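dumping this here before i forget
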Amino acid sequence: MIFQKNKGSNSNTQQALWLAISSFSSLALAFLSSAILSRYFDKTEYGTYRQILYVYGTLQTIFTVGLPSVFAYFIPRYSNEEGKYFVNKINTLFVVLGCCFSLLLFLSSDLIADILQNRELARGLKVFSIFPLFTLPTLGVEGLYTALRRTKDIAIYNTISKLLMLACIVLPVVYIKGDYVVAIMGWGAASFVIFIYAMYMKSKPYFGIAKKRIEKFYSTVFNYSTPLMAASIVGFFIASSNQFFISRYYGTEKFAEFSNGFLSLPMIAMVGTSLKGVLLPLFSKAQKDSNLAGALFSYNSAVKRAVLVLLPMVVFCFVFGEQIMIFVYGKLYSSSTPFFRVSLFRDIFQILPYAAVLLALGHTKMYFKSHLVSAIVLLPLSYLISKLEWPPITIIILFVVIETSRHLYLFNFIYRKEKMNLIPISMIKKILTILIHSMLVSVPICFVAIYISEHISFLLLRIIINLILFYSLLFLSQGLFKLNYYDPFKTLILKK
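structure:
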């Protein structure tokens, strides 16, 4: 979407564009699912549903043992014959891990319910426990097809699978008036069909190709993935810390408010995912070919265009966060606004995909160590805040501050270790200029929004008008700040 074109049949621009479409379809459909279910469930029932997904998501981080990322790292380095052997071996590992995951989830459901102080959760987890057996083996499709530079297939795969998931979860709730267990059963039915689809997708690139054994397969893979597994385990505690403490010490209703508010903008996640997806195999191959300068040029070009597109959007969503929360989730969740605004600060660093570079260059141990230090600082402080009964937003602010500090440290590590400056002074100046410009533009729009709210009651129309006015003024005044917000879109059109 925002890469310079390389020589070859498929440009980085096209690859990133398809990844962005794939990510957008996934995030948009997940967003739509949350918006619908939060209107049909009360806060307690919706909170229980979100807790089940929270438990699944955090435990999945542990049970995947860093394996989903190995596709993008190793596939560019292997022949097709070795690639087929590699994919089959990883699939086998995922099936074994899925069995272990399902068994543990079933046996520990009562314990988890006690820890999160929600007895109803035990029932939901028992119903859900069989499904990881089908979901874990589906992991790695995106990494495999990105490494093969066939990201159009990923967009199709994710769109079909997420549409199926949305239909199976939402339709029974809407038309049968079912509870959260019905939603979970629909989730499971969809996961089985997607499992079959994913197995076909993983086999498809290697039809008619003979396998070639990879010597020292397990040692090679786990030397790379073990630090990622350790980072995943630590990341489990980091990612789940705010969810755990809010769920346990502030109740199910506050957890529901937090779950709906503390999320990344779909566009941020979409672009961040596409950047990381293209950069990891790009830098991995560039290191093998001793051509890191070319990869760094692609990185800088991509990030400069990304900040032009995304930072004004972050500012707009921060200013009009309450209207957005009410429109998406209803007036009941206007209290999710503070969580949403804090999450936007985190989003700024999601645009800078340093992790793809770090992992592609093999620095998985430092990736683990940085997560470990973050967890050591974060967990006791979050516990202290909970016991002092400070507002739950305090836990979220702490989380974002520590995560931001880790990002800055790793930028510095890459600079010292690889002599690669991923955030040069020129980029910092550009980011600050865009933020200042967007904030100045938002001031008059806020006054206009007050007037509009007095004359137009339809919330969506008010948001659209505010958005049009914001971007109109932004484009009209861009020359004063020596910015060109048209550039990423012109590049995209020309590349296509």
